[in-house]
Amino acid sequence: MIGFRFSEFVPTADNSTPFERLLKIFLELMTHTSGDFEESFRWLKELDDEYGLTSPEYTLEDFRKDLEEKNYIKKDANHQNVLSDKSEQLIRKNALEQIFGRLKRSGQGNHRTPFTGKGEEESSDKRPFQFGDTLDQIAFTESFKNAQINQGVDSFQMTERDLEVRENYSAAQMSTVLMIDISHSMILYGEDRITPAKKVAMALAELITKKYPKDSLDIVVFGNDAWEVKIKDLPYLSVGPYHTNTVAGLELAMDLLRRRRNANRQIFMITDGKPTCIIENGEYYQNSWGHDPKIINRTINLAIQCRKLNIPITTFMIAKDPYLQQFVEDFTEANNGKAFYSDLKGLGEFIFTDYEKNKRKRY
After folding, report:
1. Model confidence at 120, in pLDDT bands (50, 70, 90)?
2. HEC letters along the chain
3. Per-residue pLDDT tens for 332-356?
4. 55 compared with 167, residue with greater pLDDT
5. Is CATH 3.40.50.620 what the domain over 175-358 is classified as, yes or no?
6. Fewer CB in a 10 Å sphere around the end CB: N or C, the chain?
C-alpha cells in the first residue's frame, strides 16, 4: 500500500540521573553569570521553585554536595567555589555540541579541500597508480579485483596497470585569532550578546583542539584596551564599562599571527558596534558617538595592512542597525575580507561554516 502509516508518538525516555539533568542547567548558568557560583545557584533555585527541577529524594543541597564530591567545583585561594578543570572542559564540550552538532546533522562543514593528491584525509575516489604514489595509498581490494579481471584466476599476477590508489584530501594548517568585543554595548538594551560570543569561542576552541590539533586558536578580547585570554578563561569573560578599541584588538591579533609563522592566517571579529576608542600618545582618545574620522581611519588602515599581509578578516556584526553597516562595508572592502550581519542565534553557524571554508588549502 502506498502512503504513510501513523502511530502514537512515544517520547524518548530520559535516562539521565537527577544530578546529570541539574548539572547541564547549572553549567549553562555558570556561563551566563561569568563563573559566579553563588549567583548561578540562586538562579537555579529560582528555576527549581518555578519548574520543580528537584524532588524530596534529591534536593539542591544534595546536588551541591555531589558537585564537590565528584570534583566539578573546587575552592580557590579565597575559599570560594569555582569551576574545576573538569567542569570547564565539559562546558566547552557542551558548547561544541550545541553549536557544531547542528551543523554536522545538517551535513554542513567538512574540513576538506577540493584538491586531491597526497594529503591527510582519505576520499572514496580511486585512480590508477602513478609514479610517486606510496604503498599506504594503494587500494588493495580493488587492485586484486583488477588483476583477476585482467590476468584471470588461473594465471594470477599483479602488474602496475592493475593498481589503484585512494585519493587523499589535503587539510590546510590554519592559525586563527578570534576577537571578541567586551565593550559595554554588548549588554545594552537588555540583550545579552556576550554569552553567545563566549559559547562560540568555547565551541571553536574545543573543535580545533580535538579535531584539528595542528591548527592554532588565539583569543583576544577588546574594550578600551586589548589582551589575550586563555581558553580556560572563556566561561569567566564579562563585559566592562569599556569603549570599543578595535585598533588595539587588531594590533594584538596581528602580533599573535606574526609569531605563529603560518602561511594560512585569519582573524574572526565578533562585535556589535563601531570603534569608539584609540590610544594616542599613551592616552585614551574616545568618542562615544562612534563616527570619529580619526578613530575610523586608524581602523581602516589596519584592515589594509592585514590585506597586504594576506590576513583576511571576517567580521561578524551581531547588530543590524543601518548606520553601522557603512563602517563594516568600508572596513571589509579595505581588507578584501568578509562580513556577516548575524543575529545571536545564527552566529555559531556562520563562524563554523566560514572556518571550514577558509581552511581549504589553495595551490
Report:
1. very low
2. CCCCCCCCCCCCCCCCCHHHHHHHHHHHHHHHCCCCHHHHHHHHHHHHHHHCCCECCECHHHHHHHHHHCCCEEECCCCCEEECHHHHHHHHHHHHHHHHHHHHHHCCCCCCCCCEECCCEEEEEEEECCCCCCHHHECHHHHHHHHHHHHCCCCCCCCHHHCEEEEEECECCCEEEEEEECCHHHHHHHCCCHHHHHHHHHHHHHHHHHHCCCCEEEEEEECCCEEEECHHHHHHCCCCCCCCCHHHHHHHHHHHHHHHCCCCEEEEEEECCCCCEEEECCEEEECCCCCCHHHHHHHHHHHHHHHHCCCCEEEEECCCCHHHHHHHHHHHHHHCCEEEECCCCCHHHHHHHHHHHHCECCC
3. 999 998 888 766 666 776 776 677 6
4. 55
5. no
6. N
